[in-house]
Amino acid sequence: MNQYVKLLNIGELSIVEFYTDKSNSLPSDILESIAQNIIIADQTDSTKIILLRSGGEKAFCAGASFDELSSIKDEESGLSFFSGFAKVILSIRSAKKIVIGRIHGKAVGGGVGLVSACDIALASQHATIRLSELAVGIGPFVIGPAVERKIGLSAFSQLALTPEEWRTAYWAKEKGLYQEVFETQELLDQYIELFKTKLLSYHIEALAELKQIFWENTDHWPQLLHERAKISGRLVLNEFAKNKIASFKS
Fold this sequence. Notes:
The protein is an alpha/beta fold. The protein has one domain (3-186): 2-enoyl-CoA Hydratase, Chain A, domain 1 (Alpha-Beta Complex). It contains eleven helices and eight strands. Helix 1 packs parallel to helix 3 (75-94), helix 3 packs parallel to helix 4 (110-117) and helix 3 packs antiparallel against helix 10. The chain is globular and about 55 Å long.
């Protein structure tokens, strides 16, 4: 598979970009690398802002890798895989720097979790969303706290219980997932440049203090997400999930 995660440092901005040739779906090594690069960017003294984005022109992120989901053979390996999403969410949570999400296309399943974890997300009108997990026999357990924190329990419930329905980028903006939605990627990138420049003009300690306030009452998340990963790791082994995943792959 053609895939990468790269860290670009441009002045006071660090960009973490990921890509896989299967609609930016996420195998465990990519998840691990995203989390590690966010940590590195946060620890870079010159960095004041982190931008999370994906490569390519189509989907922002298709969620969990179906190739890896189909290869899970026991609860331990299931826990390990789903913990990868927890690591990314927790790396953003623990970062002192503000993390901006650039969402240029569709976000599915775990991709919605990545968007939700960002401190602020900016999107194109093509950035429709869907929580597809229930349709394959599992559920959005690990990413659930991040999604619920951002859009509320009611909207999260709607997404979780309608796994085959797409919600528009404008629906996501209305619920608070996106700050702004733009007609084109060009307009999206122009706004990100302006927004980034404005953030960089603010005091870094004030931004860091705000970051802590944004993430209040999440100190229990490391244990919570671990327990949620256990649930997904167990459910992915049932016959319903195995058959559905095989069907989706084919």
